[in-house]
Amino acid sequence: MAINKDGNGYTFGFAIVLVIVVGTILTLLAKGLEPLQDRNEEVKKKLDILSAMMDVEALGIDRSNAEEEFDKYLNIKDALVLDANGNITDGIKDVNGSVIEGTAFNVDIRKEIKNKNREEKNRNYPLFIAKKDGKISYIIPIVGKGLWGPIWGNICIDDDMNTIKGASFGHKGETPGLGAEINKRFFINRWIGEKISDTNGVFLKFEVVKDGSGPFKESKVDGITGGTITSKGVEEMANRCLRVYVSYFNSMKKN
What we know:
alpha+beta
């Protein structure tokens, strides 16, 4: 029996087969590219951590040599995982609080916050410890929401466990020239020298304000003109995430 190629049945059948074939090919390609994508994410994460410690652009550090530079200053085995109270845990916790295999580097802080099934007590807070020029630094990953999508960053704390010595911020889809400016050096420099706790070890809540507005006070950072919502997003994620680490630093200072 001859196939009627002009009929609707043939057209629909051909379309279905084509969708299945193309879908299968795309699925196989996605699976095959997963290791490469994971690798790129790992390198990007290391570069972001380094960016909080130093001006990577000025030093010529990029994706091509980020892993080599990372290994000079950080050892993933030295990294810690803290709980919501700033206590060191035995490892990474799953959504139910059970310890699973992995290191601090394996913690995806975006998923930690985004997953509504994960209670705060079961969240993992990674802390990276770096050694550079004979001094220890502590790098804290943070994550939040901007105007159009997620924002994230890393805050580098000096060896006094209190003073911000560097930072890096990133975003997805923020407005060019406005909120997207959070990853620029001028905004990052405004955080350097700020304290995360007072002399009694009490967390100093940050306030990101309009550029140049109001009198100076501790933990007050000038925001980005025209990028108020994104600036406030940085404020929120810094306050939410850094508070946990102040508890850890206070306990370390007592030892």
